[in-house]
Design a protein that fits this description.
This protein has 126 residues and is of the alpha+beta class. The chain is built from two helices and four strands; from the N terminus they run E-H-E-E-E-H. It has a four-stranded mixed β-sheet with strand order 1-4-3-2. Strand 3 and strand 4 form a beta hairpin. The radius of gyration is 16 Å and the shape is globular. The mean pLDDT is 87.
Length: 126
């Protein structure tokens, strides 16, 4: 291998909840020096978004580096964590696969199509 693989273990014990991860090498990203740069980009891009929340940099430390996916069970929004170091970065999104990932997304789209507040009938963390 030219590069060591990015290892991202995911342990699950939940009915509802999901992670989607995106591993990145900083040397392949123009102008990125570390995870703080990627975090700042996501924070700016999703600023004011009601359904997507970029958690503060280092938020995973509150649970000793373990990010449980099932805490989003029953919610229709999504959280983004950015972790890593100067060489490797992991962008992780956490959401309820039954909410934001399926039925909740359908309700949000229906609300938008009908011209009503897109949060109507949905549960999001504020």
């Amino acid at each position: 291998l030219n590069k060591a693989p990015l290892f991202s273990p995911i342990v699950d014990d939940y009915y509802a909840g999901m992670f989607v991860t995106l591993p990145l090498y900083t040397e392949m990203l123009k102008g990125v020096k570390g995870p703080e740069d990627v975090h700042a980009m996501f924070t700016e891009y999703y600023k004011g978004e009601r359904f997507i929340h970029v958690l503060p940099f280092g938020a995973e430390e509150e649970s000793n580096g373990f990010i449980p996916a099932n805490v989003k069970a029953g919610f229709d929004d999504l959280e983004i964590f950015v972790t890593g170091n100067e060489e490797r970065i992991l962008v992780t999104s956490r959401f309820d696969n039954l909410g934001k990932g399926a039925s909740g997304a359908a309700v949000q789209c229906m609300n938008i199509h009908m011209g009503i507040d897109e949060v109507t009938g949905l549960k999001i963390s504020e």
